[in-house]
Amino acid sequence: MTSLTDSERVALANTALYEAMEQGDHGAMSRLWLDDPDLEVSCVHPGWPVLRGRGEVLRSYALIMANTDYIQFFLTDVEVSVMSDTAMVTCTENILSGAPAEEEGQLGPLVGQLVVATNVFRRTEDGWKVWAHHGSPVLAERDDDAAAGDAEGPDDDPDQLLP
Amino acid sequence: MTSLTDSERVALANTALYEAMEQGDHGAMSRLWLDDPDLEVSCVHPGWPVLRGRGEVLRSYALIMANTDYIQFFLTDVEVSVMSDTAMVTCTENILSGAPAEEEGQLGPLVGQLVVATNVFRRTEDGWKVWAHHGSPVLAERDDDAAAGDAEGPDDDPDQLLP
C-alpha cells in the first residue's frame, strides 16, 4: 500500500466532512473537528453569522441534521494547499437536499444549491482536523469567460461587488 | 515602545485589509496579500465563486474599487487565533457603501450590508500576509438569545440550514 501525500490526506478529510453530513453522522462530524483547548474552531454556514467553539459548531450541525431528511454533495473545483501543519481547501459544493415534508414519512421537495467553501485544517497526531469552515451561497453564475481567468464578478452587478 | 504580540500584529494586518478597501488603495491591498510561489491565495467576495491566485484576486479588488465610490467598514466581533505561523481571524463587517450615481459627480444611494469574514494569515519575513479571505452575506439576523451561545440559525428557516 503506497503512503498518501499530505494533500491526499487533507482531501480525504475534506470529503469525510461532507460524507458525515450526507449520512447525518454527528459522531463522525465531531471527530472531524479540531479538539484543541488552545485553538477555537469557527464555522460559517451559508447565510449564517460566525459560530465559534466546538460546542456551538457541533450544536449547529445537530440542528441542521435534524432539519434535513436528505442531502447530497457533489464537490467540484477542489483545490488543496498545504503549508507545514496547516492546510487550506477551497471547493464548490453542488448541493441537492430535501427537508422533511409536512406529511409524516414524506420527503419535502428537493432543492439544488450552489455553495463555495473555504475549509482550513490542522495536522494533529490523529490526522488532519477542521479548524475552520466557511460556506457561502453563490448568488449568480459567472460569465462563460470566467474559466479564462477573468476576475469579473457575477454580471458586474455593483450590489455584488462588495468584499 | 512596547513590542506587539502576534495576535495584535495579526489584528493590525486585518484592519489594514479593510483600510486599503476604504481608501481604494490597490497598492496597499497588493502588499497585504501573500506573495509566495508555493502557496496560492484564495478569495471569496460575498455571493461570488472562489477566486484563486494573486492575479485573479487583485484584479477582483481593482474591479470592486472601480465600482465603489464610497465604502466604510465597521468591524465588530473580531476574534484572532494564532497557531505558529498561521493565524485565523473571524469578524463581522458592518459595511456602508455607495456606488457611483447615474449623474456624474454624484454619489449613489448608500447601502448597508452585514457580512461575516474568515481571514487566514501567514507569517512572513515582511509581516503577516493574507493567505485567504472569505466573506459572506448574513441573510437573516439571529435571535436575541444568540448572545447566550444558542447555536440556532436565522429564524430556524430550513432553507438557511445548509452547511
Automatic annotation (TrEMBL), chains A, B:
Phylogenetic placement of the source organism: Bacteria, Bacillati, Actinomycetota, Actinomycetes, Kitasatosporales
InterPro entries: NTF2-like_dom_sf (IPR032710), SnoaL-like (IPR037401)
SUPFAM superfamilies referenced in this protein's UniProt entry, alphabetically: NTF2-like (SSF54427)
Biased composition (Acidic residues): 142-163
Domain SnoaL-like: 13-138
Name of this protein: SnoaL-like domain-containing protein
UniProt-annotated stretches for the region Disordered: 141-163
Highest taxon in the source lineage: Bacteria
Coiled coil: none
